[in-house]
Amino acid sequence: MREGFRLKAGVVMTLWTLGLGMLVTVISQGAALAKTAREIDVSVDVAVEDFEKKVTGGKEFLTSSKGVLVFPSVLKAGFGIGGEYGEGALRVEGKTVDYFSIASDSFGF
After folding, report:
1. Counting beta carbons within 10 angstroms of the beta carbon of residue 81, is it exposed (0 to 12), middle (13 to 18) or buried (19 or more)?
2. What is the pLDDT of residues 35-78, one digit of tens each?
């Protein structure tokens, strides 16, 4: 009985350590790979064009919006412990007015 508990505790610790390693990697990659304003704008342009093409009424929706916060991609990773990171831009009348980043972490199975 005690050996079974040690085995389960060992597996949980291993999974927790792997998850923590992935979380640190995601967060550090986000900071290390921070994009320039120009790179973010290009990614946002592509995402907006793709939205207009693929979503019926997408162009009208964007035109009628007071502002649109666009995150072209958000990198997610995790196993037990996870995290995500992404960068985007706030567009008002089709022009970038500010830049934002999103980061979060989670714990659980």
Report:
1. buried
2. 788 999 999 999 999 999 999 999 999 999 999 999 998 888 77
Q: Closest Cα partner for 47 from 32, 26, 63, 62?
A: 62
Q: For residue 96, which amino acid is it?
A: T
Measured CA to CA in angstroms, residue 62 lies from 38, 41, 53, 55, 99 at distances of 21, 16, 12, 11, 18
- Six token digits for residue 90: 């706030």
DSSP annotation of 57: T
Q: What is the Cα–Cα distance from 64 to 84, expressed in whole angstroms?
A: 30
Half-sphere exposure at residue 59, Cβ-oriented, CA atoms within 13 angstroms: 3
pTM: 0.63
Domain ranges, ordered by start, for the chain: 2-107
Pairing of strands 68-70, 74-79: unpaired
